[in-house]
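Why do we care about 3D structure at all? Because function follows from shape, and shape follows, mostly, from sequence. That is the central idea of this module. The next example makes it concrete: a single protein chain, its amino acid sequence, and then its structure expressed as tokens.
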Amino acid sequence: MRGAFLLAALAGLARVAVAQETMTVGRLHYDGGGDWYANPSSLPNLLKAIGDRTSLRMAPRERVVRLGEDDLWGVPYIYMTGHGNVKWSEADLVTLRSYLGQGGFLHIDDNYGMDESIRKEIGRLFPDRPLVEVPWTHPIYRLVYDFPKGIPKIHEHDGKPAQGFGIFEEGRLVLYYSYQSDLGDGWEDPDVHHDPPEKHEAALRMGVNLFLYAVGSR
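And the structure:
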């Protein structure tokens, strides 16, 4: 499975590399009061890692996007994080379903405190699709870097194991929810949280896998 997906993804990335100018990640500015802007150094570091380790031309910074604005459609990967409440309007839900249905990818990264809120919103977004744990055999854990036990544990929080949940449409992972891991903290400058180098590297590797899956599966 990994080999077949990797070949398809590389073919897709080759097409992107020829056609693209620069790529970036969209940081989702959402309503509800949560700190959507958390971990300011995280995405620039991830973008640099993707650019350094692949043939993709990456912008130095992310693009802040809202679900009601045209900028949304220019990014293949939307990232959202925070510690608090999330609230999508009915119009937001329609737009987000359309974005995901047309090849977009949403990565929700719980920064500790948004779990209860975001699970409710995911249930509104996909009322007929369960949020399921993504199998450890899925390409996001094997595409470039191997994570045989799934998403890495970066920060402890409640001491629970890190888990990656997802929503699938016709076999494609369109939404990935990283829970009890805190990849965004791991992507930040090392002197922010004083994580050991191996944690920082594990977080970046997982981020590279996620972005390449998002681009290659479109």
